[in-house]
Every structure is written in C-alpha cells, then in structure tokens.
Design a protein that fits this description.
Largest sheet: 2 strands, antiparallel
Order of helices and strands: HHEEHHHHHHEEHHHHEEEEHH
Strand order of the largest sheet: 1-2
Number of helices: 14
Number of domains: 3
Length: 464
C-alpha cells in the first residue's frame, strides 16, 4: 500500500517516519534535508504510471481511516441551511470508543482519557489523504466546474479528495460585499472565474479592486500544477488561482499541508478557511507570522504554493507580484468580502429579543459555562489571537497514515460569524459538524455540558 520512491528521490519524510518507528519504511541513506529534490531522476511517464498504480491502495487506506473515525452518512438537519441554501449536516459524527458515552468521557480527566486510550479517533489530527506526498487537493465538484468554465484541469492523477460532498460548504458560495450590502449575493449564483469576473463586477468594484480580483482568479504555477516533470497533473498545467481554494471568496474546503513545518510527518493538514470577514482579522499564515492580508497574499504566491520551498519555486515558475500595485489591489478586494447576513443578531453581535428560547439558552452558555467567549468575542466572535488547546494531554503520540499525531501548538481563533457556512471545523478539518465541535471542546476544555446544553449551544452557533 505504501508508495514506493526511487532511492535518489527519498525526501525528508522517509527519514523521519523511520526514526519514529513506522513499520515497513526503511531509513534512507541520504542525510536529512529541509529541501525537496530539484533534479528529478525519473521520467514523468514513470512517475505518473507508478502513482496511478499506487492510487487505489493509498485512497483505500485513507477511506478506511475515515470510516473508522466518523459516521459519514448524509444526515441534514431539517430546516437548517447555509446562506446559499445547502443543507447543514447534523449530529455528532466522531465515533466513540467502545463501551463509553460522551457524558462519561466529558467527566474524565485528561490523564484518565490518555491512559485508557479513550480519546475519540475523530478528535485526533487528521492526515492528508496521502500525508507523505501532500499538496493541494480539490473536491470533484470544483474540479468539474473549473474544467467547464476554463478548460483548466485541477485533477491529480495520484489522489482524490477525501471528505464526502455533503460535509463541504455551499458551491458556488454567495459573495457579500461590505461596500454594497444592498446587492446581496453579487456572484448571482455563479462560480467567479477569469472568464466572468469582469461581467459580474464591472460597475460594482472600482478599477483597482477589479484588477485585484482579476489576479485572484488568474492561475499561476503551483507545486502540483505546473509544467515540470514532478507535477501531479496529467498535462502541463497553467496552475492554481487563489480563488480555487478560496472559491468565491469563501472556501470549498480544499486541503493542503502547511509549508512552514518540517519534517513531513509533523506538517499539519490545512482546511482552507473562508476569506469572508478577512478585513477584521490580524493574523495570517499557518503559524500566524504574517500581519496583513497583503503579507499573506504575497507569501501564498511565493512560498505556500510551493510547500514553503523557494528553491523549487524558481524551477516551477514562481509568480513574483508587485507589492505596491498588484498585491495591494488583491488585498483591497479581499478586504471587501463580508460575512453572510445574520438576521437574529443586533449591532453588537448578540441575539435580538425575538430569538428562540433554545438559541437564547445557547447564547448564555456561550458566554458562561461553555467558556466559548474567552476566545470568541462579539461582534465577529474572534479575539484575533492564538491559543494552545494542548490536545496532546488526551492521547499518546503515534503515527496516523504518515501524520505524526502529537502537539498541534497554538492555533488561530477563527471568527465564528457565519460558522454554519464553513464546515468542516478546526484548523485541519477533523470535526465534521458543529455538534462534533461542541463535543470536542466539551472534552478538551472540561466544561461538563449536559446533552440539552450541547444542543442549545449548537442552536446558537447556527445563528451567528
């Protein structure tokens, strides 16, 4: 089932997996390196043939992991939909350890859960579908739409996207602008691409913003999608656009690995966050080392597109943007992307008097017993900071399909406004529903919520 590598191509992750005692993987003879190989000693035809042959076993291994971790059934909540109309999935999907209950688990200490091996597997770090390989990976519905619109193919010959469509956000997602709330969804139900952006936004944006949007929908070379022999697309590719991952300024839950962690087993999977409300955010990048959306936009093109390796970026076609003109224009458009409407919230981000009783009880829990507001403060429900949940208190470090599950370190407080539109949850998408999220934090924060309290808290979150 393991993808075989030529001895000359063994990257750092092979060394690290061997050092961690992962069975079936031999240590490479080469010394550790932070760099990927630049000169490939294998033809593209051979790479493609090998990876296509290995793909069924790689995907089956990952599907087995998902089925072990989650209930993947399509179970929408009656009467609850995202702002674009897609049904919201409900229920706790993480599977419990045999012989225990959520109530029992929530009453245990981290030490008890760790020693007895009771931390739900669905709460552990989620690996990339092929963690040793990594790279950008898109849901099939987005691949199909881009292919129809632009004849550009985001299919990878080595991997398919893993999570079922019903757990993913609206597509195409509505676009709301801070400058023109009167227009509602300015996308008019269309996926914004290089072919229609001008028609949709001419007369709505100013020329600088329109240029920023043009650049955001323009494909540029990326690690897996480029013209080289170590790409992962069947044909030489024009590349990936910013609004492929952040489709319509929102997200399609496309996944990738963070570019700024080494070695490979320690790299976190990324669940692409929404760009809605990015104007109120102050920390960017997987380690939050970037302080403006302009910094983030430039970093993505220069580094994140190429797994954080500027050497390989030069080979594959780095896109060096002009900071004073292009980067600023891209940032200005992104700063216009608004949260979806929340008719039950007042100007302070709190529930209006006519909200339902369950929602009001959930709000009281959010600001009280559940401790959510310690990090998620209104009106946008973020503190623009980072917090270390120390989830490693609850399990013993081990390797999961190439991902070494240990400490995640500090993670960003994402805004909760419009949260029902942005599944799956947590930084790596390990939590499939809001119910999963409430159970996760009930265990990790040890808030000991009762079942009715959990349901009320979810009811409140759906109104943000």
């Amino acid at each position: 089932m393991r993808q075989q590598k030529s001895p000359r191509l063994r990257p750092l992750w092979l060394l690290c997996l061997g050092a961690l005692g992962v069975s079936g993987i031999a240590l490479a003879a080469d010394p550790p390196s932070s760099y990927m190989p630049v000169v490939i000693k294998e033809t593209f035809a051979a790479i493609k043939s090998r990876m296509e042959r290995d793909k069924p076993a790689v995907m089956q291994r990952h599907r087995s992991l998902l089925e072990q971790r989650y209930d993947l059934g399509n179970k929408p909540v009656r009467g609850v939909s995202m702002s674009g109309g897609k049904p919201v999935q409900g229920g706790v999907r993480a599977r419990l350890p045999s012989g225990t209950s959520w109530e029992e688990l929530g009453a245990m200490s981290p030490e008890q859960i760790r020693e007895r091996g009771l931390f739900p597997v669905g709460f552990l770090p989620l690996p990339h579908p092929n963690h040793p390989e990594g790279g950008m990976l898109f849901p099939q519905f987005h691949i199909d739409a881009v292919k129809r619109a632009e004849q550009r193919d985001l299919t990878r010959f080595d991997l398919d996207f893993d999570l079922p469509d019903h757990f993913l956000p609206d597509f195409p997602a509505p676009i709301y602008l801070t400058t023109r709330p009167d227009l509602g969804d300015v996308s008019k139900g269309q996926l914004v691409t290089i072919n229609n952006y001008f028609e949709l936004f001419n007369g709505v944006l100013n020329p600088k913003q329109l240029e920023g949007l043009r650049l955001l929908v323009t494909p540029f070379a990326q690690q897996q999608f480029n013209q080289t022999e170590d790409r992962r697309s069947a044909l030489p590719s024009r590349g990936v656009a910013c609004l492929d991952c952040h489709s319509n300024g929102h997200t399609v839950a496309a996944t990738h690995l963070v570019g700024d962690i080494r070695p490979q087993p320690f790299r976190h999977r990324i669940d692409t966050p929404t760009l809605r409300g990015v104007n109120i955010q102050r920390l960017f990048g997987s380690q939050r080392a970037l302080k403006t959306v302009e910094d983030f936009t430039e970093f993505e093109q220069r580094a994140a597109y190429f797994d954080g390796d500027p050497v390989i970026a030069t080979k594959k076609g780095i896109n060096i943007l002009d900071r004073g003109h292009q980067v600023h224009a891209m940032g200005e458009f992104q700063a216009l992307l608004d949260f979806p409407p929340a008719p039950k919230l007042d100007v302070f981000g709190r529930l209006k008097a006519d909200a339902g009783e369950a929602e009001k009880r959930g709000e009281a829990l959010f600001f009280g017993k559940a401790q959510c507001s310690a990090c998620h403060t209104p009106p946008y429900y973020t503190d623009n900071s980072m917090h270390n949940l120390q989830v490693e208190r609850f399990f013993k470090p081990h390797t999961i399909n190439g991902r070494y599950a240990s400490a995640d370190g500090p993670i960003k407080t994402f805004p909760l406004r419009g949260i029902k539109d942005s599944p799956p949850y947590l930084h790596d998408g390990r939590l499939l529903t809001l119910e999963d999220t409430v159970e996760f934090f009930n265990v990790v924060l040890q808030t000991r919520l009762e079942q009715q309290e959990k349901e009320d808290l979810v009811a409140f979150l759906r109104e943000l």
